[in-house]
Amino acid sequence: MIKIDRLHRIKLRTTAVALTGAVLLGACVELPTAPTVAVMPSPYKPFEVFQSDDQVCRGFAYQQIGGKPSSGTASTSNSNLSYYGLQYQYNLSYQQCMYSKGNQIPGFAPPVNAPAGTGTGSVERQSGIPKITASFNRPVSLPAGGN
Question: Is residue 125 part of a domain?
């Protein structure tokens, strides 16, 4: 009887220590810092503007999952989420931000109205061929029959 009671206590202690370790390690989830989804710049958007959009949207997505500019670990409200759950939320926030700035998300229709400052242009027709001139003064010609 004494041996069984002693073995039972040892098993309980071992289990308690293992569970405590798992809980403590699970509370320290690293936050994602980069998207794992593709986003393309809208046509005629300068690459420098696209890079600026990318940086702004990375910061926005990081804050949406509970990150603070100087913090690398999850806040207590997100500590129960897995890394993959946080990455999914990060990706959604990043894509929403990039789409709202007029960038293209694969699988979604391009934004109808690009925000102000992303480039303006005009369309002229010369002999049936549309000629598009973007705000950075680089003419682009489309084949006849294009819109």
Answer: yes
Residue 9 phi, psi (nearest 5): -65, -40
pTM exceeds cut of 0.90:
no
Q: Which positions ≥6 away from 75 have C-beta within 8 Å?
A: 66, 67, 68
Average pLDDT (69-73) is: 50
Average pLDDT over residues 12-25: 64
Which tens digit of pLDDT belongs to each residue from 90-106?
999 999 999 999 999 98
Identify the domain containing residue 40 by its residue range: 31-140
Same domain, 88 and 20: no
Rg (CA), the chain: 26
Pick the closest to residue 32 from 76, 106, 85 (CA basis): 85
Tell me the longest C-alpha to C-alpha distance in the chain: 102
Number of domains within the chain: 2
